[in-house]
Amino acid sequence: MNTPIADPYSLPLDELDPSAGVLFQRQLHWAYFERLRKEDPVHFVDSEEFGPYWSITKFKDIMFVDSHHNEFSSEPMIVIGEPDSDFIPPQFIAMDPPKHDVQRAAVAPAVAPKQLVEWESLIRERIQEVLDGLPVGETFNWVDRVSIELTGRMLATLFGIPQEDRAKLTKWSDVATSSPAVGMSGISLEERKAGLRECLAYFTEVWNQRVNEPPAMDFISLLAHNPDTRDMDPMEYLGNLLLLIVGGNDTTRNSMTGGVYALNKFPEQFDKLKADHSLIPNMVSEIIRWQTPLAHMRRLATQDVEVGGKTIKKGDKVVMWYVSGNRDDEVIDSPNEFIIDRARARHHVSFGFGIHRCMGNRLGEMQLQILWEELLARFSHIEVMAEPERVESNFVMGYTDLQVKLHA
Amino acid sequence: MPSVTYIEFDGTPHTVEAENGSSLMQAAVDNEVPGIDADCGGGCACATCHVYVDEVWIAKLNSADVMETSMLQLAEGVAANSRLSCQIELNDGLDGLTVHLPESQH
């Protein structure tokens, strides 16, 4: 934790590398991106940890790269690090068309707006149950008691597995995102592989059950009954499982925590919210922008492409820093401020753009909206008692601990 | 100044006077027509400005390009007359254009 980190303004520009996981964990990445947006928005660096890559840091350049999937491939993976050569579970977020399109289309119905109507009352009941079980006037870890608990329950429903197995999903999600490929140093490849094998074994049993049952609206049933996906090999099944687990877990979980933290950092916004609950939907978009649950996505250039006056060469690695695009003052006014009634709050880059845009965005928004409706109906204040502890990652902008106290 | 009509899923019509050269999406956003989110701001990059173009108008529009067709896969309830309204540029020839909005944007 005590490795000294250079002030980005003290470094020569061509050595500026914003990718170390510890930068994000210690919240020192902001100044790196501020300098890059100002001085070199399309920035090439040969990173000690991740090799040579381009950093895209401005909103409009990110949108350009993200929406040009023919020029920028998502294969073989969508995070900055290189895959362990013998272990790359394929997943549709890291595929190009046409395979991407059919696999995504197979599972999308579970989180489409029509299906959300079915989920809504279930989500509300669960949120009520979890909130009613929280202690008032005592300090506790919001991440464990609320964020993980709620996202775990939702995930178990989306996969159609028993609720008592939900902690497994949270564990596999953490295993999947704990990798040197995102700048996290604490887990060995062997540990990671063992965790993922356990995940595959569990879900192979689930698959075998679903195949013999009538089609249902859960991810596994949708995959098992769709002609485009029912013959997937085990590694591809694992890859897509991990995508769906992480996509539905880390993102919503950390937005549930980030919102509480943001409202405490900006208490006048908390007052505004308490006075007008109709601001909740707009605030949810602002939370997702302010938090930016996933900091980046990576691409490989398939041809020479000019971006922001620089030529990215065929084969070059390109990293779109969403966490920076969401702080770009050319597109977002006062981007460092958390403003719950911000105009055009939906205009943020957290969901990505183009064909890989977040599939579960509406479900994530709905969970956050209901959470805040039910919180405001119960408690007069949610008080943050200490600065949060964060994940060491350049990918997941996550919290492991946020101590809070509820006021009746 | 073409006049265009958006009909919400529940049947509520909104007729607005649009600027020549503005997009069908922008005209909706500028006039606060509900039901068009336009998250990406007009870049054909999010599919949250999905509309159904009334049959009589389809032939008068430029056709959807490859990117628009790709992005439409992300929308819900896509039909043969589905378009992304950010990709339709308005002009006097489109005076009277009428579109229906989907139940929700994905």
Task: Explain how this protein is built.
- The complex is a heterodimer of chains A (408) and B (106).
- Chain A is an alpha+beta fold and 408 residues long.
- Chain A has one domain: Cytochrome p450, CATH 1.10.630.
- Chain A has 14 helices and twelve strands.
- In chain A, the strands form four sheets. A five-stranded mixed β-sheet of chain A has the order 1-2-8-5-3. A three-stranded antiparallel β-sheet of chain A has the order 4-12-9. In chain A, strands 6-7 form a two-stranded antiparallel sheet.
- In chain A, α5 (113-132) packs antiparallel against α6 and α8 packs across α10.
- With 106 residues, chain B is α+β, with helices and mostly antiparallel strands.
- Chain B has one domain (3-100): Ubiquitin-like (UB roll).
- Chain B is 17% helix and 19% strand.
- Chain B is built from three helices and five strands; from the N terminus they run ββαβααββ.
- Chain B has helices spanning 24-30, 55-58, 66-72; strands spanning 3-7, 13-17, 50-53, 82-84, 98-100.
- The mean pLDDT of chain B is 96.
- Classes of the chains: A alpha+beta (408), B alpha+beta (106).
Shape of chain B: globular
Q: Termini distance of chain A?
A: 37 Å
| Largest interface (C-beta under 8 Å) | A-B, 22 and 22 residues
Please indicate the count of domains of chain B. 1
Q: For the record, what is the CATH homologous superfamily label of chain B? A: Beta-grasp domain
CA distance, first residue to last residue of chain B: 31 Å
Helix content of chain B: 10-25%
Indicate the mean pLDDT of chain B: 96
Q: What's the level 1 CATH class of chain A?
A: Mainly Alpha
Largest sheet of chain B: 5 strands, mixed
Low-confidence stretches of chain A: none
- Largest sheet of chain A, if any? 5 strands, mixed
Tell me what portion of residues of chain B adopts beta-strand conformation.
15-25%
Number of strands of chain A: 12
In CATH, the topology of chain B is named Ubiquitin-like (UB roll)
